[in-house]
Design a protein that fits this description.
- This protein has 262 residues and is α/β, with parallel strands linked by helices.
- It has a domain of 182 residues: 3-Layer(aba) Sandwich (Rossmann fold), CATH 3.40.50.720.
- 44% of the residues lie in helices and 13% in strands.
- The protein contains nine helices and seven strands; from the N terminus they run βαβαβαβαβαβαααβα.
- The chain has a seven-stranded parallel sheet, sandwiched between helices.
- Helix 1 packs across helix 8, helix 3 packs parallel to helix 4 and helix 4 runs parallel beside helix 5.
- The longest helix is centred in the middle third of the chain and has 29 residues.
- The N and C termini lie far apart (36 Å).
- The mean pLDDT is 94.
Length: 262
């Protein structure tokens, strides 16, 4: 039981790992024993700087790639395959959001969000399947963790049409992928974050007190809250959790009487 949450000896890849939720998860993996954590992001300088910062906790390696296209997903998968014979953990965290009035919502805002939030997790997992399968066994399955959002569970009053649609789609895609990949001893799950301070969630970052007041637990999420959920799913503790999406939101999705924007 004492090693239930250990990630000792495991190799992980976290997309969008240079900041925000991805960085929280990458650090948590390192501090819980992961032998290597690869992070990727579109901006090379930021990705490299974060890898250097996180290297104080363990081996963190930067592979800057734009995975908003299938070609980018294949490029990243090839880069991992050149370095590692197997991949134990994949966290599909990279994402985008877009807000605009219903009558003015642009096609490029729709496509950007749907491509990165839905298409990329699928095609990156597909491209990395050989490495994940090579790592997997009944005793220690490989893990794919998709980062969804509580906006895929309940409505946010903000006009983020493609974001809502993409995160709801990712939750259901998680279930569909789980049903297929479990035969290869690859366990697919998802996390639906609520308010965490990040570049994407500037409301929680810049107006934490206001957001906290609308949260049943009366605070926004911390780095430990996010890392804890990801470590649970990635470790032995989460081996029997298949296809599930866990809301990590202080109660907003399921225990809030007066829902508001997270």
């Amino acid at each position: 039981m004492k090693n239930l949450f250990s990630l000792e000896g495991r190799v992980a890849l976290v997309t969008g790992g240079s900041r925000g939720i991805g960085k929280m998860i990458a650090r948590g993996f390192l501090e819980h024993g992961a032998s290597k954590v690869y992070i990727t992001a579109r901006k090379a300088e930021v990705c490299d700087a974060t890898a250097k910062e996180l290297s104080q906790y363990g081996t963190c390696i930067s592979i800057p790639v734009d995975i908003s296209t299938v070609a980018g997903c294949k490029q990243l998968a090839n880069a991992i395959a050149e370095r590692e014979p197997h991949l134990d953990i994949l966290v599909n965290n990279a994402g985008a959001a877009w807000g605009a009035d219903f009558h003015e919502f642009p096609e490029h805002g729709w496509d950007k969000v749907m491509d990165l939030n839905v298409k990329s997790p699928f095609f990156l997992t597909q491209a990395l399947h050989p490495g994940l399968k090579a790592a997997a066994s009944a005793e220690r399955p490989a893990k794919v963790i998709n980062i969804a959002s509580i906006d895929g569970i309940r409505l946010n009053p903000l006009e983020t049409y493609s974001y809502h649609a993409s995160k709801a789609a990712l939750i259901y895609l998680t279930r569909r992928m789980a049903a297929t990949l479990v035969a290869d001893k690859i366990v697919v799950t998802a996390i639906a974050p609520g308010p965490f301070a990040s570049e994407m969630n500037r409301n929680a970052r810049d107006h934490a007190d206001v957001v906290a007041a609308r949260t049943p637990l009366r605070r926004i999420g911390t780095d430990e809250d996010m890392a804890g959920a990801a470590i649970y799913l990635a470790s032995r503790a989460g081996d029997y959790v298949v296809g599930e999406t866990i809301a990590v939101d202080g109660g907003i999705a399921y225990a809030s009487l007066n829902p508001g924007p997270a």
